[in-house]
Write a structure and sequence with these properties.
about 160 residues; mainly alpha; about 75% helix
């Protein structure tokens, strides 16, 4: 496994800081929004993390992590558009919630992958990408995303019933 460069460390630290910011925002507000200070911090950290991920080429070319970074940037953009313009009409709040939540998933997949491939130092838990532990963890993240999205939809539906 290649050593981490200074740029890689910067990216890693920003990406790690985004995780508790996202968890805090979701636990306190149920959805991520740029109107919340915590949401704004999460979105900015995610933007920096996804952008810097595009400059890391430890395997020599464009890879899965780069694709996830592109998906994260697209989700940030679409979530922001849904939040600010209501382009999706009555579904804009749901689109905002879904797109912003997707950025959390797109951050966590490479985070756990790198964690398993690098830790513990000298004897990593996983040595190949198709390891069943890693695949099971990825599946768990996708399932957590689906459950989280369902909970957000229910929360937003109940919120609109109470205010409407």
């Amino acid at each position: 496994m290649p050593e981490i460069t200074a740029f890689g460390w910067f990216h890693t630290i920003i990406a790690i800081l985004a995780v508790p910011a996202g968890i805090y925002t979701l636990s306190k507000y149920k959805v991520i929004s740029s109107a919340q200070m915590a949401g704004k911090v999460y979105l900015i950290l995610t933007l920096i993390s996804a952008t810097t991920a595009l400059g890391i080429y430890k395997h020599g070319g464009f890879g899965i992590a780069h694709g996830l970074a592109v998906l994260s940037l697209a989700s940030l953009l679409l979530g922001f558009i849904a939040e600010k313009t209501r382009i999706f009409g009555k579904l804009s709040r749901y689109a905002q919630a879904g797109f912003y939540l997707a950025t959390f998933l797109f951050n966590m997949i490479p985070a756990v992958t790198e964690g398993f491939l690098r830790l513990p130092v000298g004897s990593p838990r996983v040595t190949i990408l198709n390891d069943p532990l890693l695949q099971g963890t990825h599946l768990a993240l996708v399932l957590a995303f689906i459950v989280g999205l369902i909970l957000q939809i229910r929360y937003l539906r109940n919120e609109s019933i109470e205010t409407g």
